[in-house]
Specification:
By secondary structure, the protein is an alpha/beta fold. About 40% of the residues lie in helices and about 15% in strands. It has nine helices and ten strands.
Length: about 350
Amino acid sequence: MSITILGIESSCDDTSAAVIKDGFLLSNLIANQSVHEKYGGVVPELASRAHQQNIIPVVHQALKNANVTKEDIDGIAFTRGPGLLGSLLVGTSFAKSFALAMDIPLIEVNHLQAHILVHFIKDLEKEKKLPAFPFLCLLVSGGHTQIVVVKSHKEMEIIGQTIDDAAGEAFDKCAKVIGLPYPGGPVIDKNAQQGNKFAFKFNRPRIKDLDYSFSGLKTSFLYYIRDHIKEDPNFIQENMMDLCASIQYTIIEILMDKLEKAIQQTGIKQIAVAGGVSANSGLRTALIERAAKNNWETFIPEFNFTTDNAAMIAITGYYKYMNKEFASQDVAPIARFAY
């Protein structure tokens, strides 16, 4: 039996809709919100208002691009959490209304689980190798940093995570310290490609087991910049590329060292990366280089699947539909969501 799933993603500031049929992606639309740039971060109230404006036209275009009608949809999957509550409410309300109107199953999706399952989206135009279970996934985004053992499409175990700030947040906050615009991670990445990653050394946190910490690194970076500006007011401008390369190198080495430790502990050598920071060129290069050195098999998502997108919600919804894991109409969004 053929299964067509409509996915809705509205956890933060991107409104997205996607259609997946039998695991193959037919369309994936994302409406971005540039209104937050001048504030240096996402403003929750503005985000939820923009979602209300965007969600109907985005869904309409996603269905059109997929060459399907709303009557062709067998189930609708939506992000229940984690995320901004106001933003989640918009997507949840739309999905519940759509499911009720079309008399189809409603499927709640964990946003973090969906980032991992993005690796199972199939392409109609080319063959793609899918990870085999179990595999390790380094999930890195603006709000989360985790090492996850993926045992099946529905069973996942977090074996390491940040105890304070996420890697993506560290990128953005460090970027802000040196005057770069929001979101700062991509700007640091671009500048880093022209800099010397060994130019400056920053203190790395010593956290036991497989957990991460980035709060101390942010603070030490702030103090480092402050002290050098006292000596030379033009320090940032004169060393911008090297500063970006050095802080990026430090963050990536912290991520990779724990990942390598997790591989040694579990013996699992199939390694995936997911989340917004998986778009970082330095992280991708580091993963590929260590994989070649240590004989790992790696899975790196396409750039359009690194940021928040409804394709990952739809593919997760597809597998939950197969297992008949449906939600009731009284389901409510959750700002903080665990596996």
